[in-house]
Specification:
The chain is mostly helical. Helices cover 73% and strands 0% of the residues.
Length: 253
């Protein structure tokens, strides 16, 4: 309790000094959430560099990097360090992680290269168009949308669940290539017995079960990406029409 009080007092003192101009503000590239973002980038690069030779290290680095995606948002709110640099860093890190993991999967599953390129294309088009539409239309947040699917997706519990399960889908697909029959030493699903089922979850390899179990969430994410892309296109087309009308009005004057 004393430590928390001291920390809170230090934050209030710093804020007061910043308001009086006695301290120079910290540049945004040194913000705590942005430093966490840099760590994410390093972890992801490490994961992809060893992905074909050291599976355990690759999975650990990738999972930790994705877990930090939630931590940087908490840090940004805790330290009041939200920034445009951080928003761009977060989005680009998320997009490159998907692209790079799909590159690895394309190496492991060459027969699915076409499908993986479709996933990458949908992901990049959706998020780039959505962010550009948000910026050019001067919206306060990229999480608002007239489309109910997109609004549902950006609800915090739903967003966390869908993103986590989508990453699980990708990771399990990667791990299945190297350990298709892996099962944990103790599986709580083994306690479940339902007569008549041909294949119980306890009898299915762990990564296979994780892949199939996360597939509905993964598919919902792709539907959301398409809906988000369509809504962003509508915004841009509407802005183009407004711009043409304004140009025509100026020429008449």
């Amino acid at each position: 309790a004393c430590a928390r009080c001291t920390y809170s007092a230090a934050r209030r003192s710093r804020a007061s000094k910043l308001q009086r101009g006695q301290m120079a503000p910290i540049p945004s590239y040194l913000y705590v959430p942005n430093v966490i973002g840099y760590v994410r980038v390093v972890l992801q690069l490490t994961s992809f560099m060893v992905a074909l030779d050291h599976v355990t290290i690759a999975v650990i680095c990738y999972v930790v990097a994705q877990g930090l995606d939630a931590v940087d948002g908490i840090a940004a709110r805790m330290f009041n360090q939200c920034s445009e640099l951080g928003r761009v860093l977060d989005m680009v890190t998320d997009r490159t992680s998907t692209v790079c993991l799909c590159l690895v999967l394309a190496r492991l599953y060459p027969q699915y290269v076409g499908y993986l390129t479709v996933l990458v294309t949908i992901d990049l088009f959706s998020h780039w168009y959505h962010m550009h539409a948000t910026l050019i239309s001067a919206q306060s947040t990229h999480k608002g949308s007239p489309n109910w699917v997109v609004r549902l997706y950006y609800c915090k519990p739903v967003l966390f669940t869908i993103c986590a399960m989508t990453e699980l889908w990708y990771v399990s697909l990667y791990a299945m290539h190297f350990a298709p029959d892996w099962r944990p030493l103790w599986n709580p699903l083994a306690l479940v017995q339902v007569p008549g089922l041909l294949a119980m979850p306890s009898q299915v390899p762990a990564w296979t079960f994780a892949c199939y179990g996360s597939t509905p969430f993964f598919l919902f994410k792709q539907v959301t990406n398409i809906a988000q892309f369509v809504e962003a296109c509508k915004v841009l087309v509407r802005l183009d029409a407004q711009q043409k009308e304004e140009e025509a009005a100026r020429r008449k004057q």
